[in-house]
Design a protein that fits this description.
4 copies of one chain form a homotetramer. By secondary structure, chain A is α/β, with parallel strands linked by helices. Chain A contains 7 helices and 18 strands. Chains A, B, C, D: This is Kynurenine formamidase.
Chain lengths: 269, 269, 269, 269
């Protein structure tokens, strides 16, 4: 290997964009939440040399925690993006599953909406429109991450979900803008990425339809974009690949941003 | 961002090192296997505009599929690596959990043992010793991946697990060699990474003890190293971060190798 | 078989005392809730003769829905009822598990507290004391069921759980009264059986301690006692056996009451 | 309550017909097996008075362990028993679910086939035909239990499942005979109740079709009929009600037999 790649990366700072997974964390009631129980614990049974092992049972879903939506997550009139009919085989989707998403190592752009508006965090139910995206230098193949500041509410489940108050996020015209720009994926630091007005719930999800079904663009939800914003990194290398769950409609992902700077390792608090 | 990092990466080829996750795939009987069922399917309930959503319920464990072992996976006499006593809080480990592993973007080395020996795949129960590692250019902080060719058996569950016949893998002296070299993590394309002689089962796991407990070096198991070997990449950039499950003894990971070459995207078949 | 037993039973009315199990039903946040997803559906794959099969994946816990608490549910200073030390084997309790509970076919008594007080349902946080039980004809070996009317709130999750407002139920002196009478089990139509004053949550559970740990008396929670009250059956044959889950701290149960009367079959609505 | 019912029952012996539920028990690979992990253990967190609580996370399916098949388990050409079209609502069947099965307290008949043939247990792949049932005193509304002796193999998973060797059980003509007699349910001590010839697997399930779809008769599988046979009880009171899981295709059940005799309590070993 030439030294250029490793050298370039050695000088990069790694920023973790995932929220930690634990029991009781925010999760839409549509999904099963996150459950973990230790099946065996140290001390349950020791080998003659004193060594012990421990492991766990885990229950969750493809849309729990920081995750990517597959194209199979949404259909219109029984058809996926591109017109293929919805087909189930062996209890999962025969096409458009999250396992079809190739690992992403590409240019990333952060749209820091609170910074644009001079606030620490967007209010509940606040729309993020095409106007907010106008000055972002978005190029074909980019992954665009939209910060609302909502990750600050991660430890306040009700506030984070915004069931009554709504959630800030991307509007339909904003989604059209990004689709027209040819982006590869769009992420956000909220439960559903898109604008949820107060009191409206998730009955209508136009951004999911525009990005996933109309344009074949994957979504990434429940990200933690605070460290990236603090690093002031509007442009970075995005690295992310969802768990390759065959035929699933979504899967957890641990996305990273590689930014210029000292090779500090930034980990979740 | 300077163009050097993105430019260097744009010229890299991305090789996926994970096995796909699906029902019935090989899994040690110690662990719960992988189970997925669609909770809602397209067509179950359509919105007025014809849009439908689908999602799933998933059951697995921290040591199912391609995964990383946390330091909390192994203890000796009730102590983790470094001597800290095993402590459980809220039903999970209070320290040494997989969430403490920082994302890895670093130099990677492939030890292609079948290639060294001129075979397509190591036989069942074959040891991989310090002698096999002697000529590998291993440096402090590297992730070292040991190929046995066992990923070729992924679709033959019994053969892959090698319950009776044993599994090829790293021996205690091989593990000592890598620990002395100061590696950051060690991975392999088998169920338990280490040498399992025919008929011995997993009653004794000296390599787990040496790497995890004695030296604080994480393991990565159930990798797919065939595409990396086919690319002839002995040296590469390793990128990997396990799902940050708080206090877990292990977690799924989708590791990638970035190698010189045309920017083909290699995905699991 | 003599005809007496069958003849006697043929004249009995069967009353179902269980709540139906479904996604989203009330469940303490301590427990994982109830999750079901169809693994295969009719139509996924047809046999040549047109026959299709369907089945599901289920996630829940030992204390979800109508269930019985095992003696292993509670310990004091590391000891179960009778003084045996808490011991875990193979990841479950080596003794006092729910599988040790023999099936119950015995006399049952309904204490209909709202009827005693002339109300339709007890208010939130209302205590049910020894005084309320004084006139009940309770005999050694009986199963005593305490109705609060709370099953009427089954479809209002927040009201049923009473997180802020409290839940009506048995007090410590009521539990002592029943223990002194030598009952075999005590059931109720609430989430925790015992009195939960407004704002106190489940921090203190004296009735669980008195019945399970001090006296070895099993509890049955989340029952539906409305049909039994409507039948005016103060005395009946109780039939119930929890799922025999080895070493579990609780298990679902579908208890029945057999009462005099026409052989109507009463099923859950 | 008149004393007759309670008196008659007090003189009855209770025989448990369920197999215990534990990790690693026999289960068809079609289903997820049984998984339990303690979420909290005694000692994890003590209240000031020394009291501790423990509970678990459970994963299984509607056809794991001793269970009853609902009419929704089988369809033919998209229709359930009676001709109703298969309909899914909220991710489960809108009709014919296991929750529609009324609790059963009725006459039970044991057909002890090994006893009829003078053997301890039927061989693998042995058919149980209408001829075997000819002398059984079966009446309308009965629950008929067919013993093969296969419960003796419960602790030998491979032998019990009989994947290669086949499993003894009811043939199509035997099922027709029982349907013509007007039985309410049919149970057996094997994984699939019906005759599975060596090497044929579960590709064809005529008995499931005849009983569930053609005749609306529920099946009970994975019973333990050894204690009932040892008691020599050919006729008894059957008591059984599956967990009322709304819209499920099957559910666990703990069936009991009440037989004449001393009031011994027989529990699983």
């Amino acid at each position: 290997m030439s030294d250029s790649l490793l050298g370039a990366l050695a000088a990069a700072r790694i920023i973790d964009l995932a929220q930690p997974l634990r029991e009781g964390m925010p999760c839409s009631p549509t999904h099963p939440g996150f459950h973990l129980a230790l099946t065996r614990r140290h001390g349950d049974a020791a080998r003659p040399d004193g060594m012990t092992g421990s492991h766990e049972l885990i229950v969750f879903g493809g849309h729990v925690g920081t995750h990517m939506d597959a194209l199979s997550h949404v259909a219109v009139d029984g058809r996926f993006h591109g017109g293929a009919p919805v087909t189930v085989e062996n209890g999962r989707y025969a096409s458009h599953g999250i396992d079809e998403v190739a690992p992403m190592v590409c240019r990333g752009v952060l749209v820091d909406v609170p910074a644009l508006r001079g606030v620490g965090r967007l209010p509940a139910g606040e729309p993020v429109t095409a106007e907010d995206l106008r000055n972002a230098d978005v190029r074909p193949g980019d992954v665009v991450l939209i910060r609302t500041g909502w990750a600050q509410l991660w430890h306040d489940r009700d506030a984070y979900l915004g069931t009554d108050s709504g959630v800030p996020g991307l509007t339909a015209d904003g989604a059209q803008h990004l689709a027209a720009a040819g982006v590869r994926a769009v992420g956000a630091d909220t439960i559903a990425l898109e604008h949820v007005p107060a009191g409206s719930g998730l009955a209508s999800l136009p951004v999911h339809r525009i990005l996933l079904q109309d344009n074949g663009i994957n979504l990434i939800e429940v990200m933690n974009l605070e460290p990236l914003a603090q690093a002031g990194a509007g442009e970075f290398v995005f690295v992310g690949a969802p768990l390759p769950i065959v035929g699933a409609t979504g899967a957890p992902i641990r996305p990273l941003a590689l930014v210029e700077g000292p090779p500090d390792r930034v980990t979740p608090g």
